[in-house]
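Ticket #274: bound-state structure for S-adenosylmethionine.
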Amino acid sequence: MAKPHLLEIRRAALAALALCLAAPAALRAQDEVPFVVTPDNVTLAMLELAQVGPQDFVLDLGSGDGRIVILAARRFGARGLGVEIVPELVERSRRHAAQAGVADRATFAAQDLFKTDLSQATVITMYLLQEVNLQLRPDLLALRPGTRIVSHDWDMGDWRPDRSLTVDAPDKPVGRDKRSRLHLWVVPAQAEGVWCGTGPNRGARLRLTQKYQTFGATLSAGNMTRLVVGRIDGVHLRGVGGFAAAIDGARLRVTDSGDAPPALPGAEFERCAG
Ligand SMILES: C[S@@+](CC[C@H](N)C(=O)[O-])C[C@H]1O[C@@H](n2cnc3c(N)ncnc32)[C@H](O)[C@@H]1O
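RESOLUTION: The complex was predicted; output attached.
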């Protein structure tokens, strides 16, 4: 038989579990990723890192008091949406947006970030946790190539950022060293697969392997074969020896075949059937 104090511990644990299961979704999400503001200078650095401009639609996942979307609208003329699970913070964000005169461009919704349509964004900002970033990663990788993602402090495991920087953050409410780490990813096009030359380049083949933003390619035409490795920046592939190509939906165009044969400037490819 269990000792009395063990029984008490077990009862307390079961009671805590029951309380947790019964808690409203807002309370649980808030407990997982609490409301902590990004200091103003770090907010600015995040938007600058993403090169936000008037054409952008900024989606802040877990938008807190709305500061990121509001600054994107006020300073950079962008439009945006903040999604936030705590209704009181959404109300506060709307008030702040109205006070800043950008309520038409900076909007807020009380909703779960995991149930949010991410495809509307050209820029996604996040100050969450690494586990949450990793949960979001498959959906982020499936976004339109060229979508920029900026995360405050947390990375995405082996999907390495395209750029990272450290910003002094004297007003940061958490942590002992008053600094923030910012990470930028540009969603790469899905290039992997076998591409077949079209038109005058029928018979040419481009076999591509891809890991996030890096690629390896075997380019073959006639009896010439060449290996190229490089990086993918949105829709643009750039490889050693001057190789450059761009993916536009289902087509791949070699814009520069570089300094070694086979020479295929301007060659168009489509995904090989079968
Ligand atoms: C660390 S704060 C960041 C706030 C703001 N983005 C900023 O950088 O100042 C994270 C926010 O995410 C919100 N949050 C947590 N889980 C969420 C979820 N599943 N859906 C939407 N918001 C969530 C929290 O309530 C909190 O306000």
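RESOLUTION NOTES: Residues 1-28 have pLDDT under 50 and may be disordered.
TICKET STATUS: resolved
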